[in-house]
Task: structure prediction
Amino acid sequence: MSRIFWDTNLFVYLFEDRSDRAGQVVSLRQRMIERNDELLTSALTLGEVLVKPMEAGDQTLARHYGQAIESTATILPFDRAAAHAFAMVRQDRSIHPADAVQLACASVAGVDLFITNDRRLVRQVVPGIHFIQTLSAAAICRFEGRVEIRRPRLSALAASQGWLYVPDPVPFMVRSGTACIIAGEAT
Result:
């Protein structure tokens, strides 16, 4: 079981987008359910998702969106601990305040994977977040088989975090030898 944080844009794709991105989100969520992964997001996500239906005066749709998120995700608050994490993240002024709130909430919660479609965030290193990936780069799969370790230096570092490194061509990490979170572009 992994703790996976979704940035607002994944919910927007799910609720409002008719492109392939909505299908990717549905597929991702199905895999998460199969693996018994925990979905997390922040109270900011809930607020951001409700803007469009409320602007349109559609209280029914706003209630539907709210119920959908609240029934499937753990909604993390922006509390005192998150405020301190926010201050640390915002020291990098290239990170927008809303993104810093999301990263701070995920950081305090200690997540395995933070999924966004904001490519600027992928290069960030935030304590408490193992990986930050775009929707297209983040895939969750079942792991069945043997792990062969060929890079001891990386493996030792990863193993110290409870992860094993599996070498190219598709870099990914395996926790407990039962499931993997791909942390790179699939080939």
